Amino acid sequence: MPSLDDTAVLWSEPPGDKPLIVLLHGYGSDERDLFSLRTKLPTAFTYASVRAPLDPPFPMSGYSWYSIEGLESRDPAGVTAGAQALLEWLAPLGERRVGLVGFSQGGAVSLQAMRLDPGRFDFVVNLSGYAAGGSAPGDEALKSAKVPVFWGRGSADPVIPVEAVEHTTAWLPDHSDLVGRVYPGLAHAVSEQEISDLARFLEKQL
């Protein structure tokens, strides 16, 4: 797994005393995708939008956190590798804890990073993503740590397999302090209502 490209990171402002939120885009996108969300979210955070380390298969443009061989394939090992790359990028920032906001693949990687190092994160936001299968080193600790997690998804999302949604629905309540929202008619996207709900969730984390 390649390292994250530090020169590709978009910062809302130089790192300082504000709490940090790292934005993780979805498959075939890049660091510019979620960066625009910062204008609708609390200004009390610094936002850093990172670029995933892999190129998706030609002719798909953009970047990916792990490979997908067909819509039904979600290899937990790939999700873990993407999460480890994120944790390695965070390491030079020291012991400061951060929040993660990820969409689709970025949401899966965000949850997996929490499962690898529960104490690193103040909260995690999973937009149209899922919890990977299998076990992870921090799963047992998460049962008591109860990291705040916001999970938003559309009822008409054709991308995330039903099995992945069912697994996430069963797994998250026991491993997080969960706030879950299902948006009627929403496909694989983020709605204005979801952004408003996300902003309220983030305000409560301050």
Automatic annotation (TrEMBL):
UniProt KW keywords: Hydrolase
Record's keyword annotation contains Hydrolase: yes
GO molecular function: hydrolase activity
Coiled-coil stretches: none
InterPro entries: AB_hydrolase_fold, LYPA1-2/EST-like, PLipase/COase/thioEstase
Domain Phospholipase/carboxylesterase/thioesterase, residue spans: 18-204
Pfam families on file: Abhydrolase_2
Domain of life: Bacteria
Keyword presence, Hydrolase: yes
Family: Belongs to the AB hydrolase superfamily. AB hydrolase 2 family.
Name of the featured protein: Esterase
Taxonomic source organism: Microbacterium sorbitolivorans
